[in-house]
Every structure is written in C-alpha cells, then in structure tokens.
Amino acid sequence: MTKFPTFFQRLALTPLRVLLPLIMAACVSIGVFAISEISSAKLKTSGQEVRQAGELLRMLTNYRAELIDAETGVRGYLLTQRDEYLTPARQAVTRLPATQHAIGDLVASNKRWRDRMADLNTQVGRVMTQLDESMTMAKAGQFAEILLQMDKGDGKRQMDTVRLNFISFEIDVQRQLSALLDEYDRALLLSRVGIGIIVCLSLLFLALLTRLLIGHLEQREQYQEDLRGQAENLERIVNERTDELSSLSTYLQDSIERSKAQLARDLHDEFGSILTSAKVDAAWVAGRVSDDSEASRRVQRLNDALDEAIDLKRRVIENLRPSLLDHLGLPAALQWYVAETCNKAELPFELTAFDDSQPVPPPVAIALYRIVQEALTNSIKYAQCRHVRIALTRNNQGIRLLFTDDGIGIANFNPSQLSHGIAGMRQRALGLKGTFRLKTAPGDGTVIDVFVPAPMLA
Predict the structure, then answer these.
(1) Which of 141, 307, 404, 441 could form a disulfide with 389 if both were Cys (CB 3.0 to 4.6 A apart)?
(2) CA 242 to centroid of chain Cα atoms
(3) Rounded to whole angstroms, how far apart are CA atoms 102 and 166?
C-alpha cells in the first residue's frame, strides 16, 4: 500500500517539462493504437466488398455463358436436328438455377443490383420459355413453323437485349469494383498518412524527452543514428509500397488486355456463329421468295443489315484485340492502325518499322501498340498537329519506339503530375522493364521515346 503514495509523490516532483512529453507520448501511443484499429476494420470491410464484387462479376460471366450455351445449343439442334447440340444446352439449363441463386445471395444487400438481377432473371426466363416452346415444336416435327419464327428475328432481338443487359450489368459491377478499389487505396493512404503523422509527433516528443534526460553527446549521437535507421526503414517501406503499386498497375493492365482478348474471341466465336446462321437463313429465304418482289426487297434489306452487323463485329473485335497483331506481328498491325486512323483524320504521317522476321512477344507487342494508339489519339484530339512521325527500330539492345508530332505541345507540363493517358503509357513501358521519356513544350510539339530492353524480347 505504501508504494503507491511514494510513486505519486515522486511523480509530483517530476518537472513539468519532463512530465508533459511523457503524457503526450502516452496520448500519441493511444492514438496510434486507435487509428490502427479503425483502419484495420475499414480495410477489412473494403476488402470484403471488393471480393464480393469480384465474385459477382465472375458469376455474371458464368451466368451469361450458360445462357449462351443453352441458346446456341437449341439453335444448333433446330438448324441441324442433331442431338449432340442438345448436350451443352441441357447442361447449361441444369446449371442456371444454381447460378441464379448464387448471384441472388451476392446482390441481396444491394437494392439496385437486386432489382437489376430480378429484371435480368425475368428476361432470361422469357428466353428459356421461348427455347422450350421451340423444342416442343421441334419434337412435334414443326420445323417449318420454327424457321418461320426464327426469320421474324424476335428470338434474336430478345437474346440481344439480354446480352446487352448482361454487359451493362457487368460494366456496372466493374465500375463498382473499381470504385471499391479506389476507396480501398484511399483508406490505405489515409491510414498511412495518419499513422505517419502520429509517429512523427511521437518521435518529436521522444526527441524532446531525450534532450531533457540525456545530456551527453554519445547518447545524443546514438539517438540520431536511430533516427537515420528509422528514416532508411521508412524509405525502404515507401519503395516497397511503390513497387507494389507499380506491380498492381501492371497486373491490372495485363488483366484488362486479357479480358479484351477473351471478349474479342467470344464475340468472334459466339456472335460470329449467330450472324453466320442468320446469313445462311437469309440466303435460304432469298432462294424461295425470288418471285415475290416485296419479299425479295425485304430479304435484301435483311442481308444488308447482317453485313453491317458483321462489319460492326469486326470493328469491335479489332478495337478490343487487333487480329493483325496476333497473325502478322507488331509492324504490320501498326502500319494498318496508323494508316487507317490518320487517313480518317486527314493527318499526314510517316511510319518506319523493322521487318517482322523476328517475332515480338505478345506482352511487348500489345504494350507498344497501345502506346502508339494512345499517343496518336492524343495528337489528333488535342495537339492540333499537321504531321506525325513514328519510328519502330530494333537492335541487339532492344526495341525503340519514337513518336513525334508537330502540334502545340503540352502547356505547364509537370512530369510528377501526369495525365491518366500519359501515366498509362509510362506504366506500360515500366511494366516491361523499359524506359519512357516525354519531351514537350508549348509550340514545339511532343516527342515520346520508349525503349524495351532485349531480355524482355526473349
């Protein structure tokens, strides 16, 4: 019992200039703990929401794929009367309820997504009802009536509407996922900043206390050495976090390119097969209504519309993933893209590129292609240039891309505050262990110099 009074008596005798830093240091420690706990809880919640949005996006993709499997399988059976087309359709129909239930659980807490999912399920139900009716008619041998219904295009329009709703929903989820990731990054940044400020305050109070309690030079020098070590540790942590963010950015760009390539393949395979089937049906109808001028005119108009759809599909696929890049290589793809874009903009250009005898790895090819795409778009939209020059060279050291325009340049250019487009080009180059340099000045145009080292081309 006597220890407590003795302790408090000694504490009362402590000078205020020593006691105050101790109290403030204790308060800062409590603040560090509180911020750490709050940030941890917030980051945990954000992480759960990100995982939920990612799972919803994956389940929507599966849902759409199962619906397409069912629709294409039934259509293939109706066109060929071959039973092997029904196997994937039956499997898809069997998986659909479980997928709907799983997605329903994921969107249960989000009214807007829940309403959209209910509307989407209703539309899918209509498609499945129409497919069931077609199969019922097929079992009754009413193939002529089925073909007549297919000619009307109601099923295709309904399926197109469902597909567009799927895409719209997926885009909505992707935006939500992006927003959640941004929120997660902001929360992480705020947590780091808050803890950093409090740590700095804590270090300040400890420094004051040390100056009061430790008078000799050796201890003060040791304390300064500790501070240098902490600064180096903080610098190392910052560098590690910077490397992590750079790796994440590169991964996201690669993931986007893979998603675009997959979407392009899906459009080519699925949408292409639908259009091909429609063209075959239209040709079949055209051969049987040649005596009816009005019907022939409408069939011709249908053929024209299908041709326009095929051309649109080709352009969309090329925008998502240039087929020339995979089939003919980077130089040929750049020749085609630059010529088509500059001709549309009536912009003179000069393009020199090495031959394609040595293939360029796909990650390097798509990165350089996107850099040229972004740079040329910026020149056409903003630079007011009269001429662009693009040079793609290759030697033993690696590949160099030099893009030059004679436009108005970038006013108030600050390398530390890059726009999203320029930052994206820079990140693509850094993701290939290369270099990215941009030189610009008002009235002097813009020069972009990208170099990819030879080890990345192996």
Answers:
(1) 404
(2) 20
(3) 16
